[in-house]
Design goal:
The chain is of the alpha/beta class. The protein has eleven helices and seven strands. Strands 1, 2, 3, 4, 5, 6 and 7 form a seven-stranded parallel beta sheet that branches. Helix 8 links the parallel strand 5 and strand 6. Helix 1 runs parallel beside helix 10, helix 5 packs parallel to helix 7 and helix 8 packs parallel to helix 11.
């Protein structure tokens, strides 16, 4: 059996991103999304999730970017003097390498974010993290602790599969290779991740795609991935959205690229291809 989860990250980031996620669900192949409890457009995302119950909604746990949901005084090792989370993954990793971040405080922030989502009436289908911070063992440890507390049994496997870039332009190939190299650099952590997930009874997809093509995902790339799927369950990460003033001002490198991804994900030929290839499109709620 071939199964594919198409998960749109950053639900709750801006209203335009929210609208793009829902459009990609209604008109395209998106089956799942992950909501940011500390996102500026969180309430709008909640309303959209409630009006689209077929869309699986998990938590996009963030210890990078924005402000914490917990009181800053309760997560002092995570925040700066202004009460903000590390602006980049690199900043977080430096803090982790120095041993200056408390695993308990990461768990406290994750717990606060899941609680906010649950209070809004959403039962999360799964957990993943903004910027894939749970590739770090200490972040993963915090994640498995709170997953057990909330009875959440599914988590993203953040270690990238192989997706050939042959169709890309020369510039995009270079960007792809840089992103893919970064993905490959963390591969040694995959064994420890799988061990932790297995130990704590967490279920993950067998394969994961999307890191190398972040910002460059088009229908040809999606088609190539779908045609190469083997047996089991895979996840494709994506970032659809509508470009608006809020997104233009937002601290993200993905701007108009989100509209390009939305267009690709809405290509009607991809649903036909899924049928031809015997691929079942599911969300994380159907992974169990």
């Amino acid at each position: 059996m071939k199964r594919l989860i198409v998960n749109a990250d950053d639900f709750g980031f801006t209203r335009g991103v929210n609208a793009g996620v829902v459009r990609a669900y209604k008109t395209g192949i998106v089956t799942s999304t992950t909501i940011m409890a500390n996102g500026e457009a969180f309430e709008d995302a909640v309303a959209l999730a409630q009006s689209n119950p077929g869309l699986g909604v998990g938590c996009h746990l963030a210890v990078v970017g924005g402000r914490p949901v917990a009181e800053p005084s309760q997560v002092r090792s995570l925040v700066d003097d202004e009460g903000a989370l590390p602006a980049t993954l690199t900043q977080l990793m430096i803090k982790l390498a120095r041993g200056s971040v408390s695993t308990d405080e990461i768990a406290r922030e994750f717990r606060s974010q899941i609680e906010r989502v649950a209070r809004a009436g959403i039962q999360p289908t799964h957990l993943d993290t903004h910027k894939h911070s749970h590739t770090h063992p200490r972040v993963m440890k915090a994640l498995v602790l709170v997953a057990a507390e909330f009875g959440i049994r599914c988590v993203r496997n953040p270690f990238e599969g192989v997706l050939a870039p042959a169709h890309l332009s020369s510039l995009s190939k270079w960007t792809y290779l840089k992103q893919y190299a970064l993905s490959a650099a963390i591969q040694p952590g995959a064994i420890q991740f799988k061990r932790l997930a297995r130990k704590h009874g967490l279920k993950t997809p067998d394969r994961f795609f999307g890191v190398g093509l972040t910002g460059m995902l088009d229908s040809a790339a999606i088609r190539s991935m779908m045609e190469s799927l083997g047996e089991g369950t895979a996840e494709l990460m994506c970032h659809p959205g509508l470009y608006d003033d809020d997104l233009d001002r937002a601290p993200t490198r993905l701007k108009r690229e989100r509209e390009h991804e939305l267009e690709a994900l809405s290509d009607p030929s991809l649903r036909r291809l899924a049928q031809e290839q015997g691929i079942e499109l599911i969300n994380y709620g159907e992974l169990l």
